[in-house]
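Support request from a user on the community tier.

User writes: "When I paste my structure tokens into the form, the page sometimes reloads and wipes my input. The last time it worked, I copied everything first. Here is what I submitted, just in case something in the input itself triggers the reload:"
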């Protein structure tokens, strides 16, 4: 699909997100990479490897945790604004 603002082509999953931002600031909005879009997904929907990446980036110690529920709880406890 093509963005109606900047004429760049994006996949269907990215285009609504992109267009919303592009409309507000087309000149300053760079092409969104799919990997970055993934980082924005809800923490509850993440897999264990993804949760571990989030924990690592936020310096959250999940060393002894193996279950998704436990890792998720640790991240949420450490990130008050975790969306
Ligand atoms: Zn655009």
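"...and here is what came back when it finally went through:"
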């Amino acid at each position: 699909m093509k963005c109606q603002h900047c004429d760049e082509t994006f996949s269907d999953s990215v285009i609504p997100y992109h267009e919303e931002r592009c409309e507000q600031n087309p000149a300053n909005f760079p092409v969104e990479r799919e990997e970055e879009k993934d980082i924005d997904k809800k923490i509850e929907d993440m897999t264990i490897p993804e949760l571990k990446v989030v924990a690592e980036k936020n310096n959250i110690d999940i060393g002894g945790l193996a279950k998704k529920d436990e890792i998720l709880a640790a991240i949420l406890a450490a990130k008050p604004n975790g969306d």
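Agent notes: The reload is a front-end session timeout and is unrelated to the input. The CA atoms of residues 39 and 53 lie 10 Å apart. The chain is about 45% helix and 0% strand. Escalated to web team.
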